[in-house]
TrEMBL record:
UniProt keyword terms in alphabetical order: ATP-binding, Kinase, Nucleotide-binding, Phosphoprotein, Transferase
Organism: Bradyrhizobium arachidis
Top EC class, one word: transferase
The Signal transduction histidine kinase HWE region domain, residue ranges: 141-227
EC number(s) reported in the record: 2.7.13.3
Protein name (Swiss-Prot/TrEMBL): histidine kinase
Record Gene3D superfamilies: Histidine kinase-like ATPase, C-terminal domain, PAS domain
The keyword Cytoplasm is assigned to this record: no
Length: 333
């Protein structure tokens, strides 16, 4: 049998630099006695440190570390002297007003030390972190929606039982409500490749609120909005916000009682569109101490990021009033 050894290539400094450049790897060295840090040109750019700064220390780099991560990174930096083996820490830095994620990796003091100097790399992992955050947000949103749908199904069953004379009537009405709810869900998470056929604000609101209307209550839900086009991108965001308000109303507000009413009106002022959601006749409400639930955060983030506006809540004795302020230009997109 042949015992020929595989010939392994030899990488010189030029080859290694080409590889690290291609991988976006920045190099650093740290003297454990003097705390002096030496970095290559890519590391200077990554940290947004002027190349004229020749005497780099942790304190100089810490000026750019996100305040929420600073103490954690400082402790980890000091602890590397006692770490045996490889270590890694991810943290945020502030870069030209934006947030950038950096992963610092190296060896502890049991290996690869030359002249009391440790060596390691910096990696820009911003895209990876953003993808992880997006996945977490999506998972949280889906979990939130599933819980909401179960709650809504229960509420719709209760609505239907109040007005249905027979079980056949109840089955028919409940089926219609659930189908209407399905149409509303299509607005919130449209099918890829299918263009929305609903381009009017009044149609959007009516479709979303149709599952909650009651046959015997002809004035339970009133919608009064001007004829106004809503763009395909913004209709999904606005549908999500209105759906969240309707869900909460069915749980705790005016839509949870047969005597409750809901008025949705809209006015345009210059470059702004103002939608007012007014609930009356529901159970007594108490303003929450903080709006920190997932649904509240989702609504506020959507209003600001996608619709260029804001949302305000007024828990009065008469009932909840919600004011949605949106950019007219964003709404038309």
């Amino acid at each position: 049998m042949s015992s020929d050894k595989i010939s392994m290539p030899v990488w010189n400094e030029k080859h290694l630099r080409a590889a690290t450049d291609a991988a976006g790897v920045a190099l650093w060295a740290w003297n454990v006695d003097t705390d002096a840090i030496t970095m290559d040109e890519r590391a200077y750019d990554l940290w947004d440190v002027p190349k004229s700064e020749k005497h780099i220390t942790f304190e100089i780099l810490s000026r750019n570390i996100h305040p929420a991560d600073l103490e954690r990174v400082r402790s980890a930096f000091a602890a590397t002297r006692a770490i045996v083996g490889a270590y890694e820490i991810d943290f945020r830095i502030l870069f030209d007003g934006d947030i950038r994620w950096i992963s610092a990796r190296g060896q502890g003091d049991d290996a690869d030390i030359a002249d009391r100097t440790m060596f390691g790399i910096f990696l820009d992992v911003t895209q990876r972190k953003q993808a992880e955050e997006a996945n977490e947000l999506l998972a949280g949103e889906m979990s939130h929606r599933v819980k909401n749908l179960l709650t809504i199904a229960t509420a719709l069953t209760q609505f239907t039982s109040r007005s249905a004379a027979t079980k056949e009537d109840m089955a028919h009405e409940l089926t219609n409500r659930l189908m209407a709810l399905g149409r509303a869900q299509d607005l919130i998470r449209p099918i890829p490749g299918r263009k929305s056929e609903r381009a009017l604000l009044g149609d959007l609101v009516s479709i979303l609120l149709a599952p909650y209307d009651e046959r015997e209550a002809s004035v339970r839900i009133r919608v009064s909005v001007p004829k106004m086009n809503v763009g395909e991108m913004s209709s999904t965001t606005l549908a999500l916000v209105l759906h969240e308000l309707a869900t909460n109303s069915a749980k705790y507000g005016s839509l949870s009682l047969a005597s409750g009413t809901l008025d949705v009106s809209c006015n345009a002022h210059g470059d702004e569109v103002v939608v007012t959601w007014t609930e009356r006749g529901g159970p007594p409400l108490k303003a929450p101490a903080r709006l920190d639930g997932f649904g509240s955060k989702l609504v506020q983030r959507s209003m600001a990021a996608q619709l260029g506006g804001s949302i305000a809540f007024d828990w009065s004795e008469e009932g909840l009033v919600v004011t949605l302020i949106m950019s007219k230009d964003r709404l038309a997109r």
